[in-house]
Amino acid sequence: MKICMIVPNAAVKGGIAAVVNGYRGSDLEKKHTVHYVESYCDGSKADKFFKALGGYFGFLRLLLRERPDIVHVHSSFGPSFYRKMPFIYMSCLFRIPVINHIHGSEIGRFYENASERKKKLVRKVYGKCSRLIVLSEEWKEKIARIVSGDRIDVLENYCILPKEPYDTGRNRSQILYLGKLEKDKGSYDMAGILEKVCRACPQARLVMAGDGQIEQVREAFDKKKLLPSVRFTGWVRGEEKEKLLRESAVFLFPSYHEAMPMAVIEAMGYGMGIVATAVGGIPRLISNKENGYLEEPGDSEKMAEDVIVLLRNEESCRLYGQRARQTASQKYSLEIHLRNLEKIYRKACG
Question: Which of 28, 245, 323, 341 is most buried by its number of CB atoms within 10 A?
Fold first, then answer.
């Protein structure tokens, strides 16, 4: 089967690039011919414009020369939706099935609270897709308000498990956050959580690994005189990210909106004690007080209590981490993910 994937540049920050980068060099490429067409990059508006433009021309050449059997579009909400529209329309013009793999997590602002004109456009574009992929059952219910549920498949994100030992150099006092620093991710709640944690565990240290509103988040910690207990690394990837996952004891993820966050799945793979919020697909990953802790978004008090328990009780933290890793291995491996993806390809091809 010839597959064309519409993807971001491999160096882009974020979950979509992380998912796609796992496909590169995998069994998917051994079984099928996979062409990657890049439509997005980090950088200036001009950089992004010319990357998208190059993607459209490259895609058109591919349609004329290779004619893929399937076009697999990786998309989100907001600007990503509009960038992917030409790929979807061109595919339909050539009568090639389109799979729209939706990674977004903020459907309220994108569709539910949008104007009738925008809603009509979203329905039209999604209606042209042979199948739509979402990351959780909850998101299938939401997207089913736009298109028929029998055209929607749930394909959860995956974890590439690190080999044993996966917890080398573990610092029992280190808490880790991975992701964009912004309000929707709960970044501004972190200062309140850490303040409560440090009262009970003065040795606790937090690593904020991500980009975004760094200065504003730093200021929130500064107001509480917590900067000596926090380290801002900026965006991390590769060996730098792996080092943080190996050496940190607790993973804290107080997000307000999620689909199926790769960061949580990665933390599971590294056997960390996890404290997260019960939003999106996270409850599929973490069962409260079984392989981690789940709280409601904004409940800084409860999240702080959970972190304190994990920092004070090394055995409990290790046990939850082992269970989380086992869950990742049994349900969220790349192999399982790719098998399910191939089933969706067969559906799209009829």
Answer: 245
